């Protein structure tokens, strides 16, 4: 074997060993990744987490009902009864408790075009959010919206109203006197702000009379990129700036969905 041939063989062997080394290390966690995740974990541990979702219980109010949600969940199989596992089934409206609305909720054309829960922009549902207190003697009218002076550029706002003070989400019987948006308030929001996530502390973003209920929703849904989040738990939330994470279920053809929403402070 010539020295040239031997050199070529050694070079090929080195290349193979290098390839094996790269492949074996491909799944390993690097030191820099470990340092980064440790740093991120430390940062998150320092943040306060506020759960702004209501617990689903039989006495949670349901829109238009005197009896709340009722017994909406039951065991289908039970370990106590000799089954291998506990496996429950539940029956809920897509607009129960803390939930989001999709544009198809009050607009048949948008519903047919596929503007359902799956189509909602997760970037809208997650990010910096402003929590504001509204006047306790008014619904959210255009006048109230002007008085709040929410700057252009603010994308997400949670409106803490008299509903929270009255603890309406803790009362089983639906209360039609809840505070919410009027049609002129909704029109002002659409035309004069950049708000895309509208959070409220009772079961509807719109006041109760049927004409207003429909009109407010249609005004908000017309741009197709505004997401109402309803039934929020804002008891322990003071006005200010937070980070919101709000995730509905991916319900294909869903006009709404229960959601788990939290704030980071």
TrEMBL record:
Specify the domain of life of the species encoding this protein. Eukaryota
UniProt subcellular location: Secreted, Extracellular space, Extracellular matrix
Q: Which GO terms describe its biological process?
A: L-tryptophan catabolic process to kynurenine
* InterPro entries, sorted: KFase/CYL, KFase_sf
Gene Ontology molecular function, alphabetical: arylformamidase activity
Pfam families in the record, alphabetically?
Answer: Cyclase (PF04199)
Instruction: Report keywords, A-Z.
Output: Extracellular matrix, Secreted, Signal
The record, for Gene3D superfamilies, names:
Putative cyclase (3.50.30.50)
Which PANTHER family does the protein's record reference?
A: CYCLASE-LIKE PROTEIN 2, KYNURENINE FORMAMIDASE-LIKE ISOFORM X1
**Name of the protein:** Cyclase-like protein 2
What organism is recorded for this protein?
A: Nicotiana attenuata
């Amino acid at each position: 074997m010539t020295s040239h041939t031997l050199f070529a063989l050694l070079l090929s062997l080195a290349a193979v060993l290098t390839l094996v080394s790269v492949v074996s290390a491909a799944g390993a966690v690097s030191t820099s990744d470990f340092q980064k995740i440790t740093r991120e974990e430390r940062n998150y541990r320092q943040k306060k987490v506020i759960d702004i979702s209501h617990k689903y219980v039989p006495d949670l109010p349901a829109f238009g009902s005197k009896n709340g949600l009722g017994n909406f969940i039951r065991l289908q199989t039970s370990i106590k009864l000799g089954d291998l596992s506990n496996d429950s089934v539940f029956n809920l409206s897509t607009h129960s408790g803390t939930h989001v609305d999709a544009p198809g909720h009050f607009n048949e054309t948008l519903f047919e075009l596929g503007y359902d829960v799956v189509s909602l922009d997760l970037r809208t549902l997650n990010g910096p959010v402003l929590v504001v207190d509204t006047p306790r003697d008014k619904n959210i009218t255009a006048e109230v919206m002007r008085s709040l002076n929410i700057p252009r550029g603010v994308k997400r706002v949670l409106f803490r109203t008299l509903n929270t003070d009255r603890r309406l989400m803790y009362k089983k019987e639906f209360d039609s006197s809840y505070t919410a948006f009027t049609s002129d308030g909704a029109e002002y929001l659409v035309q004069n702000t950049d708000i895309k996530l509208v959070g409220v502390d009772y079961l509807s973003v719109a006041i109760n009379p049927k004409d207003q209920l429909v009109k407010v929703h249609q005004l908000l849904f017309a741009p197709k990129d505004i997401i109402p989040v309803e039934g929020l738990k804002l008891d322990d939330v003071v006005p200010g700036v937070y980070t919101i994470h709000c995730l509905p279920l991916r319900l294909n053809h869903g006009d709404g969905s229960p959601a788990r929403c939290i704030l980071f402070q």
